[in-house]
Amino acid sequence: MIGIYQDSFKQYLEDNLGKVKTSSKNFIVPCPWCEYQQDKDHYHLYIALEAPIFHCFHASCGMGGNLRKLLRKIAGHDISDVFVDKKTMEEARRKAEVFKDKDSSKIVIRTPTLNKNQFAHKEFYLRNRLKFSNIPSEMITGLVYDIEKFIEINNIPVDVSLFRLKDYLQGNFIGFLTENNSALMLRNIDNSHEMKFHKLKIQESNFLDYYKLQGYSWKSNKVVLAEGIFDILWNTFLILQV
């Protein structure tokens, strides 16, 4: 068994899609919607090993849903029962409590409107970190100033530890929502404080999560890797100036 799948599933993917990589959580394969018969070093469709769901992370695609949808694209009809071991899948579902039998497991998370007047101190910190570039704050993916409003509109449970921190996070932290909506990564605008970062967990994700900014052209072959979120923002600004 490979996750919840019969060993034959990997061979089926290789026979019908091409190169298959296996990570600790996913099969990584060419996307039949946007990468069919393309020869690349890295492909963008991830199939979760612990739940029958998939997602394509290519900027021009974003296709995702239940395994049945993928197999209908490949084979023309649903053959998931051939490859998915239902007993193993039920065990994985009980452990993870994240499996949802619908077209997407990704819960939509909303971000509050940026109120730059109310949070002028956060806006100034951001502008300073970006060396007062002309990048509008509204263009920054998943940017959150109003932490309390973010928690409220997304019905995030407030446990004892979050209750104690909430006021401090509201006054001193900027948030960045991760790509798969599993966490809000928070940065303290007070550099003198020992607590510089905080991760507000929102939900589980069957896929590797990260913070990503999309460029202006999905046809571009430029990729910028950076250690921190502000490094990503600054390097993006430099590329736009070239």
Number of strands: 9
**Helicity range of the residues?**
25-40%
Strand order of the largest sheet: 1-2-3-4-5
Q: Enumerate how many helices there are, as a single number.
A: 8
The structural domain count equals 2
Radius of gyration: 20 Å
- What share of the residues does DSSP label as strand, in percent? 5-15%
Distance separating the two termini: 49 Å
The SS-based structural class is alpha+beta
Mean pLDDT metric: 82
Shape: elongated
- Runs in which pLDDT lies below 50 for 5 or more consecutive residues are 98-105, 238-242
Largest sheet: 5 strands, antiparallel
Order of helices and strands: HEEEEEHHHHEHHEEEH
Question: What this model shows, in words?
Answer:
- With 242 residues, the protein is an alpha+beta fold.
- The chain folds into two domains: 89 residues, DNA Primase, Chain A; 122 residues, no CATH class.
- It is 31% helix and 14% strand.
- It has a five-stranded antiparallel beta sheet with strand order 1-2-3-4-5.
- A hairpin with a 3-residue loop joins strand 1 and strand 2.
- The longest helix is centred in the last third of the chain and has 13 residues.
Observed structural traits:
242 residues, alpha+beta, DNA Primase, Chain A, 2 domains, 31% helix
Produce the secondary structure layout.
Blueprint: H1 8-16, E1 21-22, E2 26-29, E3 45-48, E4 53-56, E5 64-66, H2 67-75, H3 80-83, H4 86-96, H5 120-129, E6 143-144, H6 147-153, H7 160-172, E7 173-177, E8 183-188, E9 197-201, H8 229-241
Antiparallel strand pairs: 1-2, 2-3, 3-4, 4-5, 6-7, 7-8, 8-9
